[in-house]
């Protein structure tokens, strides 16, 4: 057989025969082309059975004078050209034929990898399959593989279109091995079947691949028009078959003219966070000016990000979060975020039990400890890596993302935050935040000169107040200067006067009275507190009891316990006439009554407030 005859042979067969362990089989194939004695073309008779030197099994070729052909399981034609027929040697004669004759009992098991190795136009793919450690997988005979193999021209086209991506895939660097594996596996159907060209669908159909993702963008769209194969990942184009049905013992290879790019190659780490619902993380990365860093597209740089979910940030002390968001704390925020980033591409399979993982945090505490039991990362707290599909080993063009359920806090995190930061950061305290600002109390409660224990009414508490006393609620929420003192008094009634942080564990077992920052000091201005529930009761007549909905939300200057009712001070439960009546101003009350001014001075309206200079009985 000529070189062209061997080139026309299934490359997998040829590679199989070249293997040392198949030397005897190769010898049998070659001896199937050798006959004892000197048989000139003139000695070949039509229909003759020619016995070869193959030692067993199928040993015979059949000659046909019509066309000068030899037939086994296939047919070869004897060349009639001068110098190619009856070429005499000192020990016999040679006749040139145009095909390799295959005995029907040729047994040489060869894989789709052998096909790739043997195909001259798939040399780049051969190199990459080896670099990706996929040769062993694709050489398995436990299942069937349908492979769409990009030819060398396909990789040349990729280099022209995206030199950086091409360089990453071809680099041989460990940090790009997962991306290379993902890209190559995107060219192999996940179905355990051999899909020949004749079996390709007549209309465009989506097929899942061995790439790790299972969403629609990770599919290949295939039709038998051309045949054509299209990756659905944005930015990835269509490939056309240059050769089909190159079969192997464990599947088939169709050669294609484009590299089919999986979603991972078309997105960076920030893209994953943005599209994956990590809005809090993206917002903080933006605030910390780390977007450009985490979008880096360079052969020398890859990142592994342990990405806390929105719920993880929501579970964080809201004061910490608010503190980190402040412009003056940008560097601290960046350090916290970089405590979740590791250099290189670290897949979950590369995490070993007890490993100390060095993060990109620049100083101080930089290391996380991994435990294979529960897949946890530990700093001053512990976070669990999600094992759910699409939340672990989420590959990007510049690294990998693993989703975690908690924000990892380095032991040396320094960010001083006040009870006001807690209020601002808590989603359920938005009304309180607005009112604290309106009452000009934010500055006071942000002071680090003393400690504050705050009972913060949640949004539902103010809604309940509005239902119970719409006028009082309207006064407090009005923003009017004439109601600012009443608003201040009401809010200060939710703060203990003692310079101390009282945690839930420190609340008294039996009901105990505590003074507040409200201006009055009598018993009616006290809060009665017990650790049953825990419950907090204002002693002002008409004010009810509040139950804690969350306790011990600490701050650098105290603690906030969230409660479900607004605790009303005495001032909210009395009008001017009540003060005169209960305060011993009997002469004044009598004269106001005589003058028919009681109704006026009892007016309860958002638009009306009075300041009264009240003469004592002695004055009268």
Written account of the structure:
With 620 residues, the protein is α+β, with helices and mostly antiparallel strands. It has 24 helices and 26 strands. Strands 7-12-11-10-9-8 form a six-stranded mixed beta sheet. The longest helix has 10 residues, at 152-161. The radius of gyration is 41 Å and the shape is rod-shaped. The protein starts with a helix and ends in a 19-residue tail after the last helix.
The neighbouring-strand order within the major sheet is: 7-12-11-10-9-8
Strand content: 15-25%
User: Averaging pLDDT over every residue, what do you get?
Assistant: 92
Tally the helices: what do you get?
24
The main sheet comes to:
6 strands, mixed
* Helicity level: 25-40%
Number of strands: 26
Distance between the termini: 134 Å
The whole-angstrom Rg is 41 Å
Gross geometry: rod-shaped
Q: Structural class of the helix and strand makeup?
A: alpha+beta
Low-confidence stretches are none
Observed structural traits:
620 residues, alpha+beta, six-stranded mixed beta sheet, 24 helices, 19% strand, rod-shaped
Furnish the topology, listing elements before pairings.
Elements: H1 3-8, H2 11-18, H3 23-31, E1 49-51, E2 60-64, E3 69-71, E4 75-77, E5 87-89, E6 92-94, H4 112-118, H5 123-131, H6 135-138, E7 145-150, H7 152-161, H8 163-170, H9 177-185, E8 205-207, E9 220-223, E10 228-231, E11 238-248, E12 251-256, H10 269-275, H11 279-287, H12 291-294, E13 303-308, H13 310-315, H14 318-325, H15 330-338, E14 341-343, E15 356-358, E16 367-371, E17 376-378, E18 382-384, E19 394-396, E20 399-404, H16 419-425, H17 430-438, H18 442-445, E21 452-457, H19 459-468, H20 470-477, H21 484-492, E22 512-514, E23 527-530, E24 535-538, E25 545-555, E26 558-563, H22 576-582, H23 586-594, H24 598-601
Parallel strand pairs: 7-12, 13-20, 21-26
Antiparallel strand pairs: 1-2, 2-3, 3-4, 5-6, 8-9, 9-10, 10-11, 11-12, 13-14, 15-16, 16-17, 17-18, 19-20, 22-23, 23-24, 24-25, 25-26
Helix pairs in contact: 2-4, 7-8, 14-16, 19-20
């Amino acid at each position: 057989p000529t070189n062209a005859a061997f080139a026309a042979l299934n490359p997998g067969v040829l590679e199989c025969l070249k293997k040392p362990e198949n030397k005897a089989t190769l010898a049998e194939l070659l001896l199937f082309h050798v006959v004892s004695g000197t048989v000139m073309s003139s000695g070949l008779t039509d229909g003759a059975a020619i016995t070869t030197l193959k030692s067993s099994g199928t040993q015979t070729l059949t000659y046909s004078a019509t066309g000068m052909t030899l037939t086994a399981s296939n047919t070869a034609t004897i060349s009639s050209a001068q110098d190619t027929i009856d070429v005499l040697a000192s020990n016999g004669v040679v006749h040139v034929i145009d095909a390799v004759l295959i005995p029907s009992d040729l047994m040489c098991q060869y894989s789709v990898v052998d096909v790739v190795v043997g195909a001259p136009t798939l040399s780049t793919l051969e190199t990459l399959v080896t670099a990706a450690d996929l040769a062993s997988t694709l050489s398995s005979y436990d299942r069937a593989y349908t492979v769409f193999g990009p030819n060398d021209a396909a990789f040349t086209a990729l280099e022209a279109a995206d030199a950086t991506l091409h360089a990453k895939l071809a680099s041989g660097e460990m940090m790009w091995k997962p991306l290379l594996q993902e890209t190559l596996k995107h060219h192999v159907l996940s179905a355990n079947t051999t899909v020949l060209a004749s079996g390709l669908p007549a209309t465009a159909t989506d097929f899942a691949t061995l790439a790790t993702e299972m969403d629609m963008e990770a599919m290949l769209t295939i039709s038998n028009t051309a045949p054509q194969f299209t990756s659905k990942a944005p930015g990835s184009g269509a490939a056309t078959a240059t050769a089909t049905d190159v079969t192997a013992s464990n599947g088939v290879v169709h050669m294609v003219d484009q590299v089919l790019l999986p979603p991972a190659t078309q997105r960076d780490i920030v893209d994953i966070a943005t599209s994956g619902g990590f809005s809090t993380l993206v917002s903080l990365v933006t605030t910390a000016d780390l977007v450009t860093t985490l979008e880096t597209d360079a052969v020398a740089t890859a990142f592994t990000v342990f990405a806390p979910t929105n719920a993880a940030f929501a579970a964080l002390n809201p004061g910490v979060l608010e503190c980190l968001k402040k412009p003056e704390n940008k560097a601290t925020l960046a350090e916290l975020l970089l405590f979740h980033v590791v250099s290189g591409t670290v897949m979950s399979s590369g995490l070993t039990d007890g490993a100390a993982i060095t993060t990109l945090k620049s100083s101080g505490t930089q290391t996380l400890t991994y435990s294979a039991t529960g897949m946890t990362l530990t700093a001053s707290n512990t976070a669990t890596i999600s094992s759910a599909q699409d939340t672990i080993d989420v590959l990007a063009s510049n690294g990998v993302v693993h989703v975690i359920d908690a924000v990892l806090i380095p032991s040396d995190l320094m960010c001083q935050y006040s009870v006001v930061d807690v209020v601002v950061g808590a989603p359920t305290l938005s009304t309180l935040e607005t009112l604290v600002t309106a009452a000009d109390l934010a500055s006071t409660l942000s002071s680090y000169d003393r400690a504050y224990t705050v009972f913060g009414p949640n949004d539902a508490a103010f809604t309940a107040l509005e239902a119970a006393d719409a006028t009082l609620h309207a006064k407090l929420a009005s923003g009017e200067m004439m109601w600012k003192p009443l608003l201040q008094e009401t809010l200060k009634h939710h703060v203990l006067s003692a310079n101390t942080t009282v945690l839930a564990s420190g609340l008294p077992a039996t009901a105990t009275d505590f003074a507040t920052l409200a201006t009055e000091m009598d018993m009616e201005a006290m809060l009665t507190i017990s650790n049953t529930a825990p419950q907090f009761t204002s002693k002002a007549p008409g004010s009810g009891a509040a139950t804690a909905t969350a306790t011990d939300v600490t701050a650098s200057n105290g603690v906030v316990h969230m409660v479900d009712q607004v605790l009303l001070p005495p001032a909210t439960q009395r009008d001017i006439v009540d003060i005169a009546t209960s305060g011993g101003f009997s002469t004044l009350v009598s004269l106001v009554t005589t003058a028919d001014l009681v109704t006026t001075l009892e007016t309860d309206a958002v638009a009306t407030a009075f300041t009264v200079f009240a003469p004592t009985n002695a004055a009268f």
